[in-house]
Design a protein that fits this description.
By secondary structure, the protein is mainly beta.
C-alpha cells in the first residue's frame, strides 16, 4: 500500500514537471499531450474525429494542475473535458447553436450519446465501452428537453417503447415485469425505497433530478455485476462540476430546488455537491382545494470528494428524504395520514492500482421509517381502518474489481455483504357488506394484527469476463451467486449464469444477443404484512433472451429492432385491486385480491427510429412495441393488469436560437379490465390510451448567468384515459363510474444558473 501511494505521487510529480518544463508542448499536437497524460495515470477518453492531428497546443502549459490546464487548452479548440464513468475523463465537442454552422457528432439514437464511438487512448481499456447488453444512456441535457411530469429525470425512460406507465407514478414496468423489479442505484448505492409518497402512486423519486448527470438504463440481459432485481436496472450518476463553482436555482408548480456544486483545494482536487428540494404539491392543493389535504415532501443530497492524485479518490455522501401526507377524499370515503423517512450514508473509495487493475469499494448505511394510518367508509359496501409502522436498517460493504490482462479481454469480479433488520407493526379491521363479502377474497369481517421483527444477512459475488475473440466479435460471460439468510427456507441461494455477444456487421451495424438467469429475493423490508402474509418466500427467478440489431443510415438516422422473451418462475404471490388502482388505502378495499401464479411469461418485439441527441438543435424518435404479458395459473393464462399489446411512442425537440420546443406522445392498447363481481379478471380492456405532452422554454442571458423559463403541459388535449372503475352503493342500487389517469396538468417554471 505504501509503495502504491509513493508511486502515485511520483507519477503526479512527473506529470507536473512535464507541464512546467517549458517549450516542451507548445506547437505539438493535442493528441500527443493526451497520450502523455494517459501514460502517467490519467484515464482520458476521446475520439480521433474530435481531437484531430491538426489541433496543436497553443501555449505552453504553466499550471501545476494537469487536468485544469488540459481543460483550458481544450476550450481554446472548442472542446470540453468532463468526468466520465469509472474514473475517466471524456473529451467532447461543446454544444453550439445550429446557426453557428458548426457540425456536431451524431449519436446512434436520441437517447444514446456518442460514448460507444469514443476511442480510449490506451488500447487496454477499449473493452470497457463495448457493452454487449441492451443498455441505453440518458444524459442530463436530454432529460431537461423532453417533457417529464414533475421535472423527474427518471420519467425519460417511459419514452422508450418497452416500458409501461400509467402517467401518475414515477415507477414503470419494464418489458412486462412488476414495478418493483427495477434495481435503483445512485452513485453505486442501492436505494431500497427510491420514491416519495411510496404508498400513494410514488409521484417522484427521492433524488433531485438537478443533481443527476446521466442514467444508465438496462431493460434486459444486463451483466452479472447487477443482481437481486430481475427486469431492469436504473443506474443514476451524480453531476461532476465543470467550473470552480456552479449554482442552479429552480422554481416550478411541482418543486423548489437549490443546487450548488464545485471544486476546492490548492489544485482543485476536491469536489462537492449540495442539492435541496421541496415538493410544492401541498401549496398547489391549498390553492385548488384545501380540504383535500397536504402532500408534503423534501429531499437532501450532499456529496464531498477528494482526489489523491489521478489514481485514488474518496467520497462521502448523504441522501435524506422526508414525506408527510394528509389526504381526505370524500368522494371515495377515504382518509389517510402517512409519514416516511429515508436516510442513506455511504463512503466510496475508487483506486486505479495500475494501468490494468482498478477497484471500487462502498461502505453504506441505510435507515428507513414508515408510518401510515387511515379510515375507509363506503356506505353499504365496506368499512375499515388501518394503522401500521415499519422500520428498516441495513449496513453493507461492496467491492468491485476490474482487471485488464490484455487488450482483447477484461475480467470483472466483486463481492457484497449486508446485515439487515426490520420491525413491522400492522393492525387493520375490515367489515364488508353483502353481497360484496362473497366476491374475490372477501369475508364479512377481517381483522389483522401483526408484530414481526425479522433480521438476517444477504451475500453476493460475481465474476465476469469480456473477451474480444475476433476484431468484430465480443463475448461477455459471467455468473452471479446470491444468498439470503432470513427467508422461510433458510439460507436460500441462487446461481445466475449470463452470456451475451456483440457482433459488428459493419461500421454502422451492430448485433447484440443476450441470455441470462436472474433472481430477485424478497428483501427484508418487503414482507407483505399489510396483506396478511408474515413469512418470506423463496427468491423469484427469470430467464432473459434478447436479440438487438442496430443500424445507422448515412450517419444520421438510427434504426433499432429488438426481440425479447422473459420466463418467470418461482413467482411469489402479489396483491392487486381488481377495480380501482388509484385508491389511497388499497389493502382494506373490498376489491383487494391475491394473484398466485405458477409462472409468467413476457415476450415482445420493439422498433426504434431516431435521429439526433440532446446536444443538437433537432432530434426526434419514433418507437413501436408489440408485447404479450401473462400469468399462468392451474387452468389458464391471464393477462397482467399492465399488459398493453400495441404501443407507439414518438416525440421531437427543436432548438431555435434561445427557444426550445418539444413534444412527446404515446398511444397504447388499453390495460386489462375486471368486471364486477370479479369473476372475469382481465378478460376485457379499458379504452385505448393516448396522450400528448408538450414543453416550450426560452433562455435569457442576465447580468449573472443564464435564466431559463419553461411551460410544460401533460396530457395537452385533456384526454380522458380510463384507468379504473369506482363503485358506490345506496340501499337500493349499485352505482358505477370509470375514473381516469391524469387530466391536463400544466407547470410553469424558472431556472437560474450561474
Amino acid at each position: 500500500m505504501r509503495f502504491s501511494r509513493h508511486l502515485v505521487w511520483l507519477l503526479i510529480c512527473l506529470a507536473q514537471c512535464a507541464f512546467a518544463a517549458g517549450d516542451n508542448w507548445q506547437g505539438r499536437t493535442v493528441a500527443d499531450l493526451l497520450a502523455h497524460l494517459t501514460a502517467v495515470g490519467y484515464r482520458i477518453i476521446y475520439s480521433s474525429d474530435v481531437v484531430g492531428e491538426d489541433l496543436l497546443v497553443a501555449t505552453e502549459p504553466g499550471l501545476t494542475n494537469p487536468i485544469e490546464e488540459l481543460r483550458y487548452e481544450l476550450e481554446t479548440h472548442g472542446l470540453l473535458l468532463e468526468r466520465g464513468p469509472a474514473d475517466t475523463w471524456l473529451v467532447r465537442r461543446a454544444a453550439v447553436p445550429i446557426a453557428d454552422d458548426v457540425s456536431t457528432e451524431l449519436p446512434e439514437t436520441p437517447v444514446i450519446p456518442p460514448l460507444p464511438e469514443i476511442v480510449v487512448t490506451s488500447s487496454l481499456h477499449r473493452l470497457e465501452y463495448k457493452q454487449t447488453g441492451t443498455q441505453t444512456y440518458l444524459d442530463r441535457e436530454l432529460a431537461t428537453r423532453i417533457p417529464a411530469a414533475a421535472e423527474e429525470a427518471v420519467r425519460i425512460t417511459t419514452r422508450l417503447p418497452g416500458t409501461a406507465s400509467g402517467g401518475i407514478s414515477a415507477r414503470s414496468h419494464v418489458r412486462g415485469g412488476e414495478a418493483n423489479e427495477v434495481l435503483f442505484l445512485l452513485d453505486g448505492l442501492r436505494l431500497y425505497q427510491p420514491f416519495h409518497l411510496k404508498d400513494f402512486q410514488s409521484v417522484a423519486t427521492i433524488v433531485n433530478s438537478s443533481a443527476i448527470d446521466g442514467i444508465d438504463f438496462y431493460s434486459g440481459a444486463y451483466p452479472a455485476r447487477y443482481g437481486d432485481r430481475m427486469s431492469g436496472v436504473m443506474n443514476l450518476h451524480l453531476r461532476e462540476p465543470q467550473k470552480p463553482t456552479e449554482t442552479e436555482l429552480s422554481l416550478s408548480f411541482f418543486n423548489t430546488s437549490v443546487l450548488s456544486l464545485g471544486r476546492f483545494g490548492d489544485d482543485q482536487q476536491g469536489d462537492w455537491l449540495l442539492a435541496l428540494r421541496r415538493g410544492n404539491l401541498d401549496l398547489i392543493v391549498d390553492v385548488i382545494d384545501p380540504e383535500v389535504g397536504s402532500p408534503d415532501y423534501q429531499d437532501y443530497l450532499l456529496h464531498g470528494g477528494w482526489n489523491f492524485g489521478p489514481r485514488m479518490q474518496l467520497s462521502a455522501n448523504i441522501l435524506a428524504s422526508h414525506d408527510k401526507l394528509l389526504i381526505n377524499d370524500n368522494d371515495r370515503g377515504e382518509f389517510a395520514l402517512a409519514k416516511y423517512e429515508n436516510q442513506h450514508l455511504w463512503l466510496k473509495w475508487r483506486a486505479n492500482w495500475n494501468e490494468r487493475l482498478s477497484s471500487e469499494t462502498i461502505l453504506s448505511f441505510s435507515q428507513i421509517s414508515n408510518e401510515r394510518s387511515g379510515v375507509l367508509e363506503l356506505p353499504f359496501i365496506v368499512s375499515a381502518t388501518l394503522d401500521e409502522s415499519h422500520d428498516f436498517d441495513s449496513i453493507g460493504l461492496k467491492q468491485d474489481w476490474t482487471f485488464i490482462p490484455a487488450a482483447n479481454w477484461m475480467l470483472s469480479f466483486g463481492v457484497e455483504g449486508k446485515h439487515q433488520d426490520a420491525k413491522y407493526r400492522f393492525e387493520s379491521s375490515k367489515t364488508v357488506a353483502p353481497p360484496f363479502d362473497t366476491v374475490l377474497d372477501n369475508s364479512p369481517l377481517q381483522i389483522r394484527n401483526f408484530d414481526v421483527k425479522p433480521e438476517g444477512a444477504q451475500y453476493s459475488a460475481y465474476v465476469e469476463a469480456r473477451w474480444q475473440i475476433l476484431p468484430r466479435l465480443v463475448v461477455d460471460a459471467g455468473i452471479r451467486w446470491d444468498r439470503q439468510g432470513y427467508t422461510t427456507a433458510n439460507n436460500d441461494e441462487q446461481s445466475s449464469p449470463r452470456l451475451s455477444f456483440l457482433y459488428s456487421l459493419g461500421d454502422d451495424t451492430e448485433l447484440r444477443i443476450g441470455w441470462g438467469q436472474y433472481s430477485q429475493a424478497q428483501e427484508i423490508n418487503e414482507l407483505q404484512i399489510s396483506d396478511g402474509v408474515d413469512a418470506f418466500f423463496r427468491a423469484q427467478r427469470a430467464e432473459h433472451v434478447v436479440a438487438n440489431l442496430k443500424h445507422k443510415f448515412g450517419g444520421k438516422i438510427a434504426v433499432e429492432v429488438s426481440y425479447y422473451r422473459k420466463s418467470f418462475r418461482s413467482v411469489r404471490p402479489r396483491f392487486e385491486n381488481a377495480f380501482n388502482t388509484l385508491t389511497l388505502l388499497p389493502e382494506i378495499q373490498f376489491d383487494r385480491y391475491r394473484i398466485d401464479p405458477i409462472s409468467a411469461e413476457a415476450h415482445g418485439a420493439e422498433l426504434m427510429i431516431s435521429s439526433g441527441d440532446g446536444g443538437q438543435a433537432l432530434f426526434w424518435w419514433l418507437g413501436y412495441a408489440w408485447s404479450d404479458v401473462r400469468d399462468k395459473t392451474l387452468d389458464r393464462k391471464i393477462a397482467r393488469s399492465w399488459d398493453q399489446t400495441h404501443t407507439v411512442k414518438t416525440g421531437l425537440s427543436w432548438r431555435w436560437g434561445p427557444w426550445d420546443f418539444s413534444a412527446a406522445g404515446e398511444v397504447h392498447t388499453g390495460w386489462p379490465k375486471t368486471e364486477f363481481p370479479g369473476t372475469q379478471i382481465g378478460e376485457t380492456r379499458y379504452s385505448v390510451f393516448h396522450s400528448l405532452d408538450a414543453r416550450v422554454s426560452r433562455e435569457f442571458s442576465v447580468r449573472r448567468g443564464d435564466l431559463s423559463v419553461f411551460l410544460e403541459v401533460s396530457n395537452l388535449y385533456s384526454r380522458e384515459n380510463h384507468c379504473c372503475t369506482e363503485y358506490s352503493a345506496t340501499a337500493t342500487e349499485l352505482l358505477e363510474r370509470e375514473a381516469n389517469w391524469l387530466p391536463l396538468v400544466p407547470s410553469l417554471g424558472v431556472v437560474w444558473r450561474f
